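Lecture 7 notes: from sequence to structure.

We start with a single chain of 323 residues. Read the sequence below before looking at the structure.
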Amino acid sequence: MPLVCLTDFQAHAWEHLSKSTWDFIEGGADDCCTRDENMAAFKKIRLRPRYLRDVSKVDTRTTIQGAEISAPICIAPTGFHRLAWPDGEMSTARAAQAASVCYITSTYASCSLEDIVAAAPRGLRWFQLYVHPNRQINKQLIQKVESLGFKALVITVDVPKVGNRRHDITNQVNLMQNLWLKDLGSPETGNSMPYFQMSPIDPSICWEDLSWFQSMTRLPIILKGILTKEDAELAVKHNVHGIIVSNHGGRQLDEVPASIDALTEVVAAVKGKVEVYLDGGIRTGNDVLKALALGAKCVFVGRPILWGLACKVADQLLRSIRT
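Now the structure, written as tokens:
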């Protein structure tokens, strides 16, 4: 049976993944209100079609941070891709390269950064950073991704503490015990560390700390997790290069706005000074269109990429969103 829409990929992935893995991918924070609202909010928006336009030739190409992509649909950072397929992030990188779109690699990748780059050497890659309490580890990672050819640094700002993900609390040990983070080893020993022994994300990170990161790299810095006018204005004030409007797929703080509902507020606040992107709830081409119409330069897709990996057809999944 052909897989023709993301719902088909979701159903196929559910059949092939273990319960604990499925819970990890699909779970949200607390009652999952925001996770579900991310999708429901798109359905409340109606299109106003205009006809008698020449659409015999359509060009979906655009640019993000000056780099061309084939369509404004890219891959959001999600961790532990080897849960869905043995090649993990290497397969994801190959799919992104084949589709000529950007792939944001997570700090919590289950493949080494070197292997990911080797799998798709011509791909457009950004790196997502969870700020570690040890500044030396942050410095080590930033220098590594810059040397490996990553083109932007995406700092996640909405995880001062990990969200209350109830399924993860139940399943964590069984799910994570065999996964190792290749790029979060001690700078002294170079050892990898298992997920369940990871040091916490730095809860003290503040706006004033951005200057330290800017001093460490020439890469454009993008903040992921902005939902309000006030924070968007501060992002511009602190000279970031882009904003990803995101609520972490509803996995962090429950009962915050759906990403698409926060988008117009953020777009209005930045006044065109930085590029604005969006993730959360994208499931159809219509969803992409709505986000672009409301001011997003590009959208990023998270959970569906893992469904595609479970089906071993991540590149086909990207095509299905475009159509």
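The radius of gyration is 19 Å. Keep this in mind for problem set 3.
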